[in-house]
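WARN  no MSA supplied for this record, continuing single-sequence
INFO  ligand: zinc ion
INFO  echoing inputs
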Amino acid sequence: MKIPHLLTTLALTLAPALAGPGHGATPTGPNGGRLLTTMKPAVEFLVLPDRRVRLTFVDGAVVSPGDRTATVTTGDRRAPVRLTFQPEGESLVSENPLPDGRVFPVILQIQSLPGEKPALAKFQLDLSMCGGCKKPEYVCSCEHTH
Ligand SMILES: [Zn+2]
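INFO  complex generated
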């Protein structure tokens, strides 16, 4: 009987393609936060235990924020919360914490020089704990579907 054998071969051939990029593991930065690779340099977005946000710039290795300034807009669309940042070591740390809640849209703006158009990153911040890897969903490192 040739057909079952053929199906097994086909399944094995397709498996690597199906396991390719998708939800998969979230890229993470040097401190275990979410690495936003669409920005140049990449920005690590880390939520601290006190719900303040720490941003670290990564260009191969950690780079100093220099003159960069950042703003995060989040929370309820009708009453958005704006976080402002101060340099702290090699990172920028927010002066105020994230609002209450577990899932909210985040708009991150990074300005390299005063007067320059800021770079934007938008994503859904999900602070719920993942049952698979025991990390918050925004830095989930396991392959699973929602
Ligand atoms: Zn996970």
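The two ends are 38 Å apart (CA to CA).
INFO  checksum written, moving to next record
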